[in-house]
Design brief:
Layout (H helix, E strand, L loop, with lengths): L1 H82 L1 H27 L4 H27 L5 H25 L5 H22 L6 H20 L1 H13 L7 H13 L7 H17 L8 H12 L38 H20 L6 H8 L3 H19 L1
Helix pairs in contact: 2-3, 2-4, 2-5, 3-4, 4-5, 6-7, 7-8, 11-12, 11-13, 12-13
Length: 398
């Protein structure tokens, strides 16, 4: 019996211990759930707070962007108004002109027993038609088409509207007829202002007009003095595809065909210039008794040569070579196989001067080759004598 009771007590004790353990585990699980729920609530609250902060920053950035865009538009508008005051006042004057014109036309039509809706439509037809044609002309002009017919249509419709307003002004303000002129002008003035705005600033400047006038005079002079060449240029342009050859290129090509020379020159001009140079050289007194005043006159005449580019430069007239190509005469030379001695060259100087005069008379320059051939000496010695001769002549001129 006692053994049974002990077993029962042991079982009840075990059950109580198991119950306590179960309650402990249940309490631990509940605490874990509460902790997890609290953590989840905290994370949700943190995420919500961060989202609210992000939304707040986004709204602030959007607001700042709108302010910046508004400020930029304001600055752009102010800048445009400062740069285009004429456009602003033109728009104001156009509105101030169009509105009275429409009201006057409506008054004229209603005064003629036309129903108000129809009067409004007819007035809109006149003023609106003029401006519709005006804007179509502007669009055509921007596209590169001829706007003339649009401008004629604009002024025709505007004139009809002005006549209606003028007639209405005479009837409505008979005691003050000048009002009729003001009303008539209201239909024309806006068109005129717009025409000045769109075309007045695109006119030619004084410089462009002057250049165009000078070009027309130039073309007329060409046709007067060179009719055959101008005709040939026109034929060349007609033979080639349009736009391949412009006027200047065609004239230059025709000139070369007729004269064989560059534009402005010809065989006759070359011959005249060459003959003048030969006469100038022959005019010098050639010999030992060359007069210095004639030689100086020749040098001065050379500076006035109108065809220097065709013959010789001013420093090469009368047989003198270029300054840049002539080397200074050597101060001393040793006798040797390369040339004569200084004394021998000095003795040949009078003969070299005479030979140089002959070269000038023949219309040739004083060159080492020419002196060597005239004096029958080596070219290296002739080069030295050429420098001496040129130096002597310059001394005479100076």
């Amino acid at each position: 019996m006692s053994s049974y009771r002990e077993d029962r007590r042991a079982d009840r004790a075990a059950e109580r211990a198991q119950d306590r353990e179960d309650r402990r585990l249940e309490l631990d699980a509940q605490r874990e759930r509460e902790t997890a729920q609290a953590e989840e609530k905290r994370k949700d609250a943190e995420a919500k707070r961060r989202q609210e902060q992000a939304d707040k920053k986004a709204r602030a950035a959007e607001k700042q962007a709108k302010k910046a865009a508004t400020a930029a538009k304001r600055v752009k508008l102010i800048r445009w108004l400062k740069a285009n005051p004429a456009t602003l006042f033109v728009a104001f004057v156009m509105v101030a002109s169009i509105v009275p014109a429409i009201l006057s036309q409506i008054g004229a039509l209603t005064g003629a027993s036309v129903a108000a809706p129809m009067a409004g439509l007819l007035a809109a037809m006149l003023e609106g038609g003029a401006w519709a044609i005006t804007f179509m002309g502007k669009q055509a002009e921007d596209a590169g088409r001829e706007p003339r017919k649009y401008r004629i249509g604009t002024w025709a419709v505007a004139t009809v509207a002005a006549a209606v307003n003028f007639w209405h002004g005479l009837e409505a303000y008979g005691e003050h007829p000048w009002v009729a002129f003001v009303l008539g002008a209201s239909s024309l003035f806006a068109i005129y202002i717009w025409d000045l705005k769109t075309h007045g600033s695109h006119g030619k400047t004084k410089e462009q007009k002057k250049a165009e006038k000078e070009r027309r005079a130039h073309v007329a002079a060409r046709r007067k003095h060179h009719p055959q060449i101008v005709e040939q240029a026109v034929k060349l342009q007609a033979a080639l595809p349009y736009g391949v050859l412009d006027d200047e290129a065609a004239f230059a090509a025709a000139w070369r065909i007729h004269t064989g020379a560059e534009p402005g020159l010809s065989a006759q001009l070359y011959a005249t210039a060459t003959e003048a140079v030969l006469h100038l050289g022959a005019a010098f007194e050639l010999g030992d008794d060359v007069r210095e005043e004639l030689l100086e006159t020749g040098f001065k005449a050379a500076r006035l040569n109108p065809f220097a580019e065709l013959t010789q430069t001013p420093t090469s007239q009368a047989g003198l070579g270029e300054n840049a190509s002539s080397a200074p005469a050597p101060t001393g030379r040793a006798d040797g196989p390369e040339g004569k001695s200084e004394e021998e060259l000095e003795a040949l100087l009078p003969d070299a001067l005479a030979a140089a005069a002959e070269l000038v008379a023949e219309g040739r320059q004083i060159s080492a080759h020419g002196l060597a051939k005239k004096l029958q000496i080596r070219r290296v010695d002739a080069a030295v004598l050429r420098n001496r001769v040129i130096e002597q002549r310059r001394l005479h001129v100076a």
